[in-house]
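Retro notes
What went well: the complex prediction finally ran end to end.
Inputs used:
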Amino acid sequence: MTDQGSSFVATRNACKMCTPLGACLAFSGVEGCLPFLHGSQGCSTYIRRYLISHFREPMDIASSNFDEQSAIFGGQNNLSIGLRHVLESYRPKAVGIATTCLSETIGDDVSMFLNEFRNEQAGNADVSIPPLIHASTPSYHGSHFDGYTEAVAAIVDTLAEGGKRQADLVNILPGIVSPADLRHLREIVSDFGLTPVLTPDYSERLDGPPWQQYQRIPDGGTPIDMIRRCGTAAASIQLGDTPTGRTAAGILADKFDVPAMVLPMPIGVRASDQMFAALENISGRPTPKQHADERGRLVDSYIDAHKYIFGKCAIVFGDEDFVVSTVGFLAEIGIQTVLCGSGGQSGTLKASIDQIEMGPSEPPRVIEGVDFEDLTEAADDVHADLMIGHSKGYKLARQLGIPLVRIGLPVHDRFGASRLLHVGYRGTQQLFDRIVNTLLEQRQDISEMGYTYL
Amino acid sequence: MREAIDILDARRRQVHTKGSQPFQLDCEKHSVAGSVSQRACVFCGSRVVLYPITDALHLVHGPIGCAAYTWDIRGAQSSGSQLHRMSFSTDLREKDVIYGGEKKCEAALIELIGRYRPKAAFVYATCIVGLIGDDLEAVCRRVTAQTGVETIPVHSEGFAGSKKDGYTAACAALDRLVGTSESPPPDGPSINILGDFNIAGETWIIRDYYERMGVNVISTITGDGRVDDIRRAHQAQLNVVQCSGSMKGLARLMKQKYDIPFVHVSYFGLEDVSKALYDVAEQFNDPAMMQRTTQLVRDEISAVMPQLRRYRDALQGKKAAVYTGGAFKAFSLVRSLRTLGVQTVIAGSQTGNPQDYQQLESLCDDGTVLLDDTNPLELAKFIDQTGADLLIGGVKERPIAYKLGVAFCDHNHERKRCLAGYEGMVNFANEVYSSVCSPVWSLSPRKRHAPPVKRSIGPGPLVTADAGLPLNTKAPQCPTAATVPSAGSDSHACGVCQLKAHCSGLAAQETETA
Ligand code: SF4
Ligand code: SF4
């Protein structure tokens, strides 16, 4: 059964964020890049606040700070003044400009504004203009996930150059994952003897050490020089197969003939196997021993714990990528997903879930464009033992009296979101252990005996 | 070594160091384009003010972000309905933007009112609604007529001004409710509590103080607010207004329309909360009430002083930076910090006006840096320059402090801890103490060479009060006996409330009764 959200006109407790948020996140993963929202100030302030609560790191997002004049006459003036100010105060190596609903609606031609800005500043010897990357992200079109995808596409489109093919260079397009995931992906690719261009990579910037001195733009991010080399890579691996619209992998394939491999988010043994197989293919090497060992331990732990979890029922929600892979992973370990949904509406969620090898499990009810009240109402018709998704599901989990295993973004009510590992065999292991322990803890809590062996 | 951070030319006049030159600080300006202002938008201002009205429906008319980022973000508590904690959005899509969002808004309102049966509904216009030109007044009229539930538009288009304009829009919306109830007024002195938002139950604490003084509280606007109470707010004899910007507008409107006088107060810090209670008692000109107030202040202060003294011993000599939304709170914080032996070296706000900054300047010591509508880079620069040990602000300011190895205290609407009133002052002291005196700072790169300093308040429970908890019974003691020297203040004034009149009045009463 597939549904398109609810019968309600209004969205009640949204299960998504707006497009510019995703774009700002992507821009924070480029070295020295300052995210800049072209629109009113409130959007950038709210987005900063939202992301700071998740990452607990500085999150400076500039804004062209529209006022009534700009809303009426267009935002060109604000954009160029704003850019001049950020170049002066932040000295960025790139500026990632995302539009908000407002500037999109008044029809600002940002590409033209940027060209004029470049020309205007060309005569000014004091300022050198870094790359200006423009992502069009009206929020009435898609969700944060689409904004992220569009911004990554814009980064690559603006910066990547062609050239002689480099057999050891591989583009990794990771999707919205945690800093710990990004670090792990880099490690995996390097262990195959390959050089990853991981775009974006906010692992250091959004999970970094304290500072000796205040940094205008925190260290870290994919080096711009590396992104320039994207067009020469042996292949692109895009993790997550739900994006629609233009994607970085698509652009690199079209412009520079870089083969694109679109894989599911590597959560679970089977999904991770696909990523490792792709890397074996590209590198011509077998999976390095330490990773093969991790896979072995993971499967061993599946066996050790299977009785604790078999037949349990889960509700899964969040970004489409995560939902698809989590449902696949749960099917692999014998937990049945009874209901799943995403605030996104790419239209591909149901089809991707249909592809999953369900084993003994029944296919779940899938709701696209869901909000938390739809999910709450749908949860009435099912039995669930746990929920898996981001922290905004807490209200429902509390209402149902079942635990919530937090994954993805946002995690606003637990500590260490940046260090949650989800991907690869190691990430799956951590997630698996958390799920098993959550269920054990619950079992122990409700037992009258309070057994100390479980 | 990185180069020093400069102040943008366009912002130079919004920064001032006390004593460096004659006082001059620009403010009430639209934020400079490209500066990473800590301010939000008009919508934010309205949403902050109206959010705690718990039995109303709040529908954000616009694309999803504006509603998603404000979902359950604040610590405003309710003693009943939790409807305000829901995030409702019309989640405008492309076709709504092209063809207009009125129909969607109307349909959303009708179904939501049908489903949730609120006492009233507020519809917030966001940026995009201002552009596509939806006639929200007309939509609300139709919905009110059809459902019988008063539906009120809030003209809070994000770009049309600053957060302060959002306060004005919220006050205009509230003004439509006030005066629409016919229920009989209560006997005896009565007030409305304006501008307290019941963060972590603070309104309950304040309300309890006034009730113990013998004052009826007709409505609390908007902390733990109820539509029906707001409707009869015009019956009160006095409006007690906290917070510089948000509720002054409503108080003024009620003065014009219903001739209700108002007083400005703050509930943060011993001095300010005591003054708030005395000021209200003075307005009613009733010696018995003044007597009760004096007793209350005395009891409360003597209950908290022993703990505050312990915190003060640990914090003495530390330096703080204060950056708040409204300037009024900054005044209270400067004073509260003084009570704890902490000196304010940076003080600023997002929305202060010239009079506010004048007052802030006179309150601060020489060398204090004053900032209007500042940004992360400037804050970092001045924290570095002044050697501040602590930053007080909101979540957006937190990482600036932490990255620099500086303590932080959240004093925004999103906090979950009560900081108002007397028990709130103890919590505040504890908040400051548990950050400033944490051993973790000695490991941060900026402080690596500094050995961890022993500044523990020693064993014994750190009592922290939660809203609604009964206070301990305490021995009566004159508040003037509480020995909190207030640096830089008039030495003849009471060390606690700093009010000469109250202290001498109190002394006179004591002699009479003796
Ligand atoms: S769109 Fe406008 S109203 Fe909404 S958050 Fe942004 S600035 Fe505020
Ligand atoms: S106006 Fe658009 S960009 Fe801004 S917060 Fe709202 S949804 Fe996001």
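What we learned: Residues 106 and 314 of chain B are 58 Å apart (CA to CA).
What to try next: split runs per interface for comparison.
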